[in-house]
Amino acid sequence: MRIATYRLHGQRQVGVVSADGRRITPLPLTPEQAERGAQAVIEHAVAHGRPLEPRGEAVALTDVVLDAPLPRPIRNLWCAGRNYHAHAKELSGSVFKDSAAKVDEWPIVFSKVPESVVGPHAEVHMPVGVSEQIDYEVELAIVIGVGGRNIARADALKHVYGYTIVNDVTARDVQLRHQQWDLGKSFDTFCPMGPWIVTADALDPAKSRVRTWVNGEPRQDAQTADMIFDVPTLVETCSRGITLYPGDVIATGTPAGVGMGMKPQRWLKAGDVVRMEVDGIGVIENRFV
Fold first, then answer.
1. Which of 37, 49, 180, 243 supports an S-S bond with 149, CB 3.0-4.6 Å?
2. End-of-domain residue from the set 44, 66, 88
């Protein structure tokens, strides 16, 4: 099932996208609940042990404007850094070379603020005068359903509600300047998300493909099997001593092909269009302005 947050005639709604991807049927939410996007749907499923059933008239997907499925996450997104073998290798000769040897010991985890989240086709605003090195990162993202603390790896998938796509947009110069990564990852609009959440029963996160194009040029193309730390391990890691809640998001890292890893390095510029696809989920596409 695909859960989308969208606007129809200016009003936010949440609905189920048809199997052919052409229509969307609303879910029975109050306007206040719908403003929270899929968060209300996830909380209902956890509280009642069953999903909401679509109700009302289906409309064409082309007639709505898709929002991020979680327009304002309940708190910072958890994010894994350098979690694909080839990506870790492409950055091993960069400024990250001092930590490259330890990349497979523990996941690198940082966060992005909720305010960075925008829709799957929204514009991304480049922070002029603050950064000159804007980069893209396609990522499969986990959406937590049943919360918990100290979740064992063997039980982790029971806590996953579904999956979505995020572009972990990064200001590389700011990231390096401050050493801690959060500032360089958290500018307004630096986390396009969507196009919807695919529920966990409809996707095997270990057998998917992630890709990026910049202005139609292929840049990233990898299988999620290349992850250093898989989805269960990341859920276990982020929950060690920390309670995860329904609606929490964990971005699983990006594969090789980022601008920083190229020779010479290639940064995004105003007018660039970045398209990202994860097999089994869909596509997000954003213009940088």
1. 243
2. 66
Q: Where are the beta strands (DSSP E) in the chain?
A: 2-8, 11-17, 23-26, 59-60, 65-66, 77-81, 108-112, 117-118, 134-135, 138-144, 160-167, 170-171, 191-199, 209-214, 217-223, 249-251, 273-278, 282-287
SS3 93: coil
Asked whether residue 98 is assigned to any structural domain, the reply reads: yes
pLDDT, tens digit (0-9, with 9 covering 90-100), for 21-43: 999 999 999 999 999 999 999 99
In a domain, 152, yes or no: yes
**CATH code for position 176:** 3.90.850.10
DSSP characters over 142-190: EEE-S-BSS--GGGGGGGEEEEEEEE--EEHHHHHHHSSSHHHH-STT-
Whether pTM exceeds 0.85: yes
Per-residue pLDDT of 39-60, as tens digits, reads: 999 999 999 999 999 998 999 9
